[in-house]
Structure formats: C-alpha cells, structure tokens
Design goal:
This protein has helices at about 25-35, 70-85, 190-205; strands at about 1-10, 10-15, 45-50, 55-60, 90-95, 100-105, 110-115, 120-125, 130-135, 140-145, 160-170, 175-180, 185, 210-215, 220-225, 230-235, 240-245. The termini are close together. The model has no long low-confidence stretch (mean pLDDT about 95). It folds into 2 domains: about 1-115 and about 235-245, Diaminopimelate Epimerase, Chain A, domain 1 (Roll), CATH 3.10.310.10; about 115-230, Diaminopimelate Epimerase, Chain A, domain 1 (Roll). It is mainly beta. It is built from 3 helices and 17 strands.
C-alpha cells in the first residue's frame, strides 16, 4: 500500500492515495497505520479520493479509527499533497470534507483555508471548569487558563470532546495546548486554534476581523474570525516522506 507522511505544525498524518476508490479503510487498518511503534505513526489518516460531485474528498480518520468531520491541519496537508503530486495547480482549490466544502489557497510555504462559519453553543463543563463551546465542523470546548505550561499532562482518558487550553500572551497572541478526541494530546489542532480565537474574541468582547497568532507546541498558526462570521486558518503544510506500507508481511 503506497503512503505519504506529512504534517502541519507537527500535527502528523498518513496520506493514502486512492484515486480509483478501491481501498477498504477499516478502523483496524487506520489504527495499525497510526501506531507509533508498530506502524508508520500519525495523529490520523487522510485518504485521497474523489467525492460524488467530482471534487477531491478528504476522508479523514482519527488515530483510533473513528471518523472525523474536519481537520484544519489535515486539510492543509491534503491540499499540499494534491499540488505536489500534480493533481491540482498551486493557487485556489475547493476541497470536499465531512464538514462541508472548504475554500483553500496554496501559496508558497503556507496554506490558507476558509474554515467556514463558527457556530457558538452553550457553555460546557470540562472537569468542573466552564468552557466555551465552538463548532468548527467538529466540536470544541475552550478553557481559558493562566498558563498552558502549568497544566501538566492532559487527561489521556478524555475521549468525548476536543478540548483547547488557551493562554493570553499579548493582544492578538495566544498559546494553546489541545486534547483531541480519539487521539489524545497532539502538537497542534487547526480547528482547535480557530475555536480558541473565536472563544477569545467573545471573552474579551472585541470586534471581529483581527488576525491572531496562535502558538502551539508544534509551531505557529494565524487565525482570523472575519466580520462575515467565517474563520480563516493559515499555516505551514509539509510532505516529509513516501513509501510502501507492508503491513504484517
């Protein structure tokens, strides 16, 4: 099975080209591919396949094999692969995801994604602490903390929510750590960074439209909650390796 490996701010993925839609991507296969000791190792799998309407469809799976609606870092890596493989030209792309069609711009070293509108829900509880609920095509709970370094190890058993812990650094500048459902703590989360900015803008009561720098353990992302309600995410996306997965042979 041919594969590629890529990452966006060290949120890493196995990409599986499946242009003819012939691959049976089971939960067990996804877990084996993402296993960091017995497999390739990744936070998730991106299957590259055409959707029903002819657009490229990002079939994204979490490391535990579960299906996910959307992945902000993943969609940037997916777009980078399409351009580097010659399947699309650099510039503007439309990509189909379970979270809807995303408008993507591949430009130089970075990829910009219109993640669509943020949907803000009622606050939720995270370990006894109130958290903002923001849906970015997948659900997030955002907790404001004084220091992300002081958190220690994030709860590895929490599987029901994507939880972002966010620290104010300066005006327009945040630090974030994240626990992704079905994965655990990751080095970055694109949709989580978007949710963090939306929650921060609401918490501080400031107008939309300003770009935010979001520092995650794996690097730096730029996020803007636009006046029209859409959120844009910009950051690096890199393909680092390709090869053949031999499985148990």
């Amino acid at each position: 099975m041919r594969f590629l490996k890529g990452h966006g701010t060290e949120n890493d993925f196995v990409l599986l080209p499946d242009v003819d839609d012939s691959l049976d991507l089971t939960e067990d296969l996804v877990r084996r591919l993402c296993d960091r000791r017995a497999g390739i190792g990744a936070d998730g799998v991106l299957r590259v396949v055409r959707g029903a309407d002819g657009l490229w469809f990002m079939d994204y799976r979490n490391a535990d094999g579960s299906i996910a609606e959307m992945c902000g870092n993943g969609v940037r890596v997916y777009a980078r692969y399409l351009v580097e493989a010659g399947l699309e030209s650099e510039g503007h792309l439309q990509l189909e995801t379970r979270g809807g069609i995303k408008e993507v711009d591949v430009k130089g070293d970075t990829v910009l994604v219109d993640m669509g509108p943020a949907v803000v829900g009622d606050p939720v509880d995270v370990d006894g602490t109130p958290a903002a609920f923001v849906d970015m095509g997948n659900p997030h709970a955002v907790v404001h903390v004084a220091s992300v370094d002081a958190l220690g190890t994030l709860d590895p058993d929490r599987k029901d929510l994507n939880v972002e812990y966010v620290e104010d650094v300066a005006d327009g500048h945040l630090r974030m750590r994240v626990h992704e459902r079905g994965v655990g703590e990751t080095r970055s989360c694109g949709t989580g960074a978007c949710a963090a900015v939306v929650a921060t803008v609401l918490r501080l009561g400031i107008p939309r439209g300003s770009a935010y720098t979001v520092d995650v353990p794996g690097g730096r992302l730029m996020v803007t909650w636009r006046e029209d309600g859409h959120v844009t995410l910009e950051g690096p996306a890199v393909i680092v390796a390709e090869g053949e997965f031999l499985g148990d042979t």
